[in-house]
Structures are given as structure tokens and as C-alpha cells.
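Summary for the funding panel

The consortium committed to producing paired sequence-structure records for every protein in the target list. Below we show the first two records in order, beginning with the earlier of the two.
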Amino acid sequence: MARDTLSGTRVTLTPPHEADIDRVSELCQDPAVQRWTTVPSPYRRDDAVHFILEVVPAGWTTGTTLTWAIRLGHGGDLIGMIGLHDIAGRSAEIGYWLAPEARGGGIMTEAVQLVCDYGFAAGDDGLGLQRITWHAFAGNIPSATVAQRAGFTFEGMRRLGAVQRGHRLDDWSASLLREDPRLPVPGWPMETLA
């Protein structure tokens, strides 16, 4: 069973639970969350109920998708979501979003580092992954900035490489390997960074 709580300096990551339903529903109304993720739009409370009570537990049970709520401090309010999905063959993809009031202060970079450390760690301390990929719809500069700061190497743009609510969109791609240093990586195109 994967470790369900990860703690850092400013954040704690735990699986979201039933008490988070209204907060997730509220945060998924944010235009940026809807613009840059694949959450349903419009987002209804029933979507949060389904996600937290069905999708998240199923992912943890199968080990194919691990989802954590990002909380300030130890046991604070939910301010975002982060997860590893498509876990197979010692590889996974990372995805994340953050509440508007929590953006721009390095909180997401810390959460990404915690999840990547766990993903790469071996044995009971982690998943033993060799590669973590990152994708974002082209134009999602905040997400790209986090990935670059966390040490991901930009690999390119996939033309119409992603689907959002039935529409194909260009997406950016990057990766982090277990042996890579966790330092900002040069070489990201100017259009990807703030």
C-alpha cells in the first residue's frame, strides 16, 4: 500500500476525504482550474462527490492513480490537489492544481518535490519509479514554471497531443528521471516560462 501522507516544511499531503467535498467543489469553480485541467465544466458538487468518494479510493486501491489533497501546515485547509496517475512500468505522470490564494509562493513546487521524492524512493519509502512525466496544455505558464523549478527537462510540444472535454489541444511535455538533480533546468522555451 502506498504511503498516504507526505509532509514538507509548509504543506502536508493527504488523500482527500468526504469533509473536503464542498471545498473541492468551490475551488473547481476557479476559471484557471477549469481552463488548465480536465475537470468537468461546469463543475457541480456531484462531480466532487464522485471524485472524492469513488475515483480517489479506486486509484489508491489499484495503485494506478495516487491523489493527495494539498493542505497548509499540518492538517490545514485543502488548497489544491496533486497526484501521480498512469502508474505502470516504473513510470507515472504528475498533475496538480492550486487555489488562487495559494499561487505564486512556491507551495506547489514543494508539493511536487514531495510527490516526486516519494515516487522515486524504493521499497516501503516509495514507488521505485524511474521516470515521472509532466504534461500541460500549451500556454499554462504557471504549471510549466513549477515543473521547471522542480527539475523537469522540457521535451517538446505535442501538436494536438491532449484532449480536454472532447477538444484536441497542443500540449507541452517534460520529464524527471530518478537520477536527475532537483534543480531548475535550463533550456525551457521562453514561451513556457513567466
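The next record, for a separate protein in the list, is shown here:
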Amino acid sequence: MRQPRLSSVIERRLLVNYRVDPDAAARLLPGPLRPQLVQGHAVAGICLLRLGNVRPAWAPEPLGLRSENAAHRIAVEWDGPDGLETGVYIPRRDTASRLNAWAGGRVFPGEHGRADFDVRETPRQVRVAMASRDGDTHVDVTVELSDELRASKLFADLAEASRFFQAGTRGLSPTRSGRHMDGMELETDAWHVEAGEVRSVASSFFDDPDRFPPGTATLDCALIMRHVPASWRPLPVMATNRDAELVTF
């Protein structure tokens, strides 16, 4: 089946980012991917995404759907036919949408688990809590809007952080077979992020000492994107040369 390009509006995209020990990150990646390093650290995080008006690019806006979604991500690089390429590896995607869970990996790239979300938003603060239906993954984060990016050891300022994430808009996700990865690329000509200050965060993924021994995953910063029109382009599948640990969780 030919997978369609999707149109949408990013109503809210909250990126909660961690500095990660490169060896700890590498253990979670299938080849040919390797961690993309910034200041000697791997970069990983959680994307908490509400999409509106999601539809095939040819469909009118009134047919678009709305959904809450979560993706755990690791910034990666690999050697492509034209040189070094960058993106993110997404070991797990979750969604509140029954349709997304059914269509992911079938109609569009990226298999999704089901999850329940509790979201509270004001113009200056966002709180998103997520619990997967299988009981394996939960997140609870509160972020306040900030006038600048503070205390990050990965990025000197908001502009540098924005450039980094804008260059990594290709997402690669494992399939159940473990033999290849699905891919999808975010495209927008209205890219804009704001700085956030994390007031509280709990993550079963990053707080797991078996996956990240103490000191190997440290909260670094948060970014917020709101009200940005975007499309999502399917990418060719990429073969893997070994299974990743996170395919199974």
C-alpha cells in the first residue's frame, strides 16, 4: 500500500530533552544508527504532541482528526548514500487515538501503542501526563514558558537548540519484525519553538536504572512548539542489522 503524505496542525509539541551517556544510548539503537553527540553527550527525550486537522494531504480540513500522542526519541546519525544523515530513533510511540493505533504501520509509518493522557494547559504552562495501556510506560511533566533557554549544557541558547531539532525531523521507528524501520519526516515552512522551564518531570523510561544507570541520563531542557502547520512525508524503510532493546518493551 502506498502511504499518503499527511497534513496537520501541530497544536502543541512539547520536547523534554535529556543529556545521555553515549554508551547507554548506543545500547538502545539498532545498526546502522549511532548516537548524534552534542558537547560529548547523546541527546534523547520525550515528545508530547497534540495534532489537529490530521488528514491525507489531498483531503479538506473539515475531515481532519485530532489526537494526543507521545514519542520517546534518541537523536541519531547514520551514513547515507550521499554522506552523513541525521534524525531521531523512536523506540516507542503511544497515542490516545484508536485510529492512530490501528493505522500506524499500516496506513502511515510508525506502530503505536494505546495510552491515556491527562492534559492541562494555560498560555504559560503545560502539564501532560501519559500512561500506556500496557502498563509499561508513564510520563508526567509540567513545563512553564520561559523567555530564554536556561541551564542547558547541550545548547548555548534557544536559537542553537532550535537549529539542532530542525535538522533532525526524520523519525525512524522499529517494526515488530525487528528487520527494518519505518520512517516519516516532519516538514513545515513555519518552524518556531519557544523555551520552556521544567517544573517537574517523571519518566518511567529515563528513570529506569536498568536502562540508564545513575548519572547516565540527566534532564537538560524543554522546548515548546504551538500552532504550526505541518505535513508528514513517509520515508523509504531502512534495514537494520540487529534488534534494538526497545523493540520489545
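Regarding this second record: The longest helix spans residues 158-166. The chain has three helices and 14 strands.
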